[in-house]
Amino acid sequence: MPVILIANPKGGVGKSTLSTNIAGYLASQGHSVMLGDVDKQQSARRWLALRPSHLPRIQGWDFEGDQVVKPPKGVSHVVLDSPAGLDGKRLKTLLKLADKLLMPLQPSLFDIQASFDFIQRLRELRGDEDSPKRQPELALVGMRAKEGTLSVQQLQGFLEGLEVPVLGMLRDTQNYVQLAAHGLSLWDVAPSRVERDLAQWAPLTAWLDARKA
């Protein structure tokens, strides 16, 4: 059962946007999906409360405490929306649970610095006795990217030197805001309405669907 963790210790980078849309994608593929909300802001949980009942079902899961908890039987995929400031025991707990770790970041100096520090922290944990022996597969995705801007160029330069897979840049659009306000994902509306966004998600969904050899 794949467990996808969305994580970045900096707040406001788009973790809930990624989490809800990934859950929506997986549900649209016929999977039994559970969306876990580790964030105190409970953004994913609020999104689920708004989700229309006729759409592919996504179960909620309030992740509490620092112990590793197994999802209920019958769930085929889990998406975990994590909080800002993720570190310490809680980070190690989630790393034990996750098969894939997707890290969103925005084209700003503060995001770049925080993301660099987090990647270094993940690498340090590989040698930690208390850390899981199996590390989740890590990938990055740029959020709210405006094509042709200097900030995006700086972000691309930063990503090139990280030796971490980059799944692309998701554009800055009101589509995500408007869909979230109604408990929807990109896969819950007519494709023609979000055609550009679906095209940008193609590498990301391919990564989600890929299984380790």
Q: What is the secondary structure topology, with strand pairs?
A:
Layout (H helix, E strand, L loop, with lengths): L2 E4 L8 H14 L4 E5 L5 H8 L7 E5 L14 E5 L6 H10 L2 E6 L3 H17 L11 E9 L4 H11 L5 E6 L2 H7 L14 H15 L4
Parallel strand pairs: 1-4, 1-5, 2-3, 2-4, 5-6, 6-7
Organism: Kinneretia aquatilis
InterPro entries: CobQ/CobB/MinD/ParA_Nub-bd_dom (IPR002586), DNA_Partitioning_ATPase (IPR050678), P-loop_NTPase (IPR027417)
Protein name: Cobyrinic acid a,c-diamide synthase
- Strand runs, count: 7
The unreliable regions are none
Topology order in helix (H) and strand (E) letters: EHEHEEHEHEHEHH
Beta-strand content = 15-25%
The number of helices is 7
Q: How many structural domains does the protein architecture include?
A: 1
Helix content: 25-40%
CATH class: Alpha Beta
Q: What name does CATH use for the topology?
A: Rossmann fold
CATH superfamily: P-loop containing nucleotide triphosphate hydrolases
Strand order of the largest sheet: 3-2-4-1-5-6-7
Overall mean pLDDT: 86
End-to-end distance: 15 Å
User: At CATH's second level, what is the architecture?
Assistant: 3-Layer(aba) Sandwich
Largest sheet: 7 strands, parallel
